[in-house]
User: Fold this.
Amino acid sequence: MKGSPDGSAPPSRPGGSPSVAAPNALPSSCAAAWKLTLSGGEFTIAARPEAACPPLRPDRVWVLDAASGNGRVGPGDAVIWPVAPANGMAAVHPPLTFRPRDWPGPVPGHVYELLYLDLADATAARPGDDAYAAYQLALTISTYVIA
Assistant:
């Protein structure tokens, strides 16, 4: 199991408490497998030809909205927005154009990327939540885009 050298313990969350969710079971080819673009207040996901990623559960794919692009996310540095609309979708996969639910729109200089959240974090997350805790166990599945 992911999280300990011998695989027996789940990954730790900030503060040391273990995650109750199963490990993220994504193929390594999903790491930044999708290209994210932003135009007219909508995001578009396109497949990168050198990578492959299967369709993903929509409840676990979220947009990271970071105030800066230094590669670090601390408390208050970023928020998350759900990709899936309120009425749902079967799966997230390219090509797809969407506007995150309840998202106020792009902010000049903000950095956006797609995250695949840990199951426990995805279940508890709400639109606009601070991204710090969820980011700790999330997997990046897209390139980033700067507004």
Observations:
- The beta strands are 34-39, 42-47, 61-66, 78-82, 96-98, 111-116, 139-140, 145-146.
- The chain is about 10% helix and 25% strand.
